[in-house]
Amino acid sequence: MKVLVAVKRVVDYNVKVRVKADGTGVETANVKMSMNPFDEIGVEEAVRLKEAGKATEVIAVSLGPVQCQETIRTALAMGADRGVHVQTDTELQPLAVAKLLKAVVDKEQPQICILGKQAIDDDANQTGQMLAALLGSAQATFASKLVLNDNGTANVTREVDGGLETITVKLPFVLTTDLRLNEPRYASLPNIMKAKKKPIDALTPEQLGVDVAPRLKTLKVTEPPKRQAGIKVKSVAELVDKLRNEAKVI
Amino acid sequence: MSVLVLAEHDNAKLNEATLHAVAAAQKIGGDLHILVAGSNAGAVADQAAKVGGVSKVLLADDAAYGDRLAENLAKLLVGLAGNYSHILATATATGKNVLPRVAALLDVQQISEISAVESADTFVRPIYAGNALATVQSSDKVKVITVRGTSFDMAPASGGSAAVEKVAAAGDAGLSTFVGQELAKSERPELTSARVVVSGGRGMQNGDNFKLLDALADKLNAAVGASRAAVDAGFVPNTYQVGQTGKIVAPELYIAVGISGAIQHLAGMKDSKVIVAINKDEDAPIFQVADYGLVADLFQAVPELTSAVSK
Fold first, then answer.
1. pTM above 0.90, yes or no
2. If contacts are CB pairs under 8 Å, which of residues 232-291 in chain B contact chain A?
3. B162 contact partners, CB below 8 Å, separation of at least 6
4. What value of ipTM does the predicted structure carry?
């Protein structure tokens, strides 16, 4: 059984992003980039399926500029077998990503597609659901536990507003990962070296016959309103006084 | 122009989260309809019919909708979409799960978690954990949009008298089935709508110590939240998590106890009106957003604070 994992190259989660003065976007030049944390969790889950003998091959897919290959290499170092890079410098919005992934899925025919719940740059939380729709497959989003059954179905526990819910989905299906699905491994140096030899297929949106033109036009990117600087209080008594008499919230 | 809002509910009661999407819909303008898709959910439709500003409630009543399965709800929405210029849902777990599927089936680019409506085709949304705001314009025929609840004051729950119209079910897609749920029970106000939130982080050290926050929350009639670290460590259930990928809250008062203030946590609470931080580390980043910061041992400060406040 093949498992396909999508991995996105994003600004590292520790970076405090700065909005460009000209309002066209966020400063990404010379900023540390990493694999989207939810996608790391996805790669980990796929590799565990392989280690458990449930998956035969893990394919890591990334879409975007040439640097996406670094992200694929990280997935390969974590244990993915092969990579696919769909290269384009066009801004990819979730609908276009889902269409590209569908085209790759049509070629590769994985039984499970694993995506991160959301990318920490655009915070869209759409692509997995969109891919499932285009494939006519079930979707299991915000997953905190995955159990494959013997009868072509899987039980997925999902984190929802009120707690946890469990659904059974038919294979093939799309899973999106939530934080507590697993704790991703660090790639060891030997595995990082081995990963350099694993193959990455190169494709383009044109070859896949997908129109990736963005639908949403970004008119501007601005900073959120700044909070006024606060103060330090010296005691609980002072805190209560301020909350009662100054802020008037208690 | 006509807007369809997907109602959030449990088949018995309309969830007030819906009222934030209704408020956003009102800013867009045009005819406002609410879709109640559920199982034996007539009572929800009746409640939706009373919401101020709503002109019609559509009720799709079928076992296929009783458990909020995305494949079934999306099929229904796609069938109804032809009549609407906009389809909205509050960004609850259900809204986030279902709407993108609808968008893809309609071949449109969804706009997630809008925080403002500039016009019928232009919206503002947070990106990079809320450290930037993007103003985006859509030329898609139907705009599919999820709404950040904290950014829109709720539409009134009463004052309206819409007609309830039954619509045919679109059938079960047969792709998924509901097995069960484990809901965290609480007598406290809902975290996402509470006036006051008391939140604990790694500094609480264990789940048992959250009793200290419970005592304070009791006095303040507050909800209790937590950072990712506290949830990951098993101190409290996932329902408590406030943050970029957890619950987004904007209460009148947010008290962060033993929380360092990582970017991802701030994303979930930095729109709170007043922020208090209690932490023994004076360099904790949380103090940069706190209106009132108390550098102290929480195990001393929290009980002291609890005694000092009256209900």
1. yes
2. 232, 237-239, 244-245, 247, 252-253, 263-264, 270, 273-276, 282, 287, 289-291
3. B34, B48, B49, B50, B51, B54, B55, B56, B57
4. 0.97
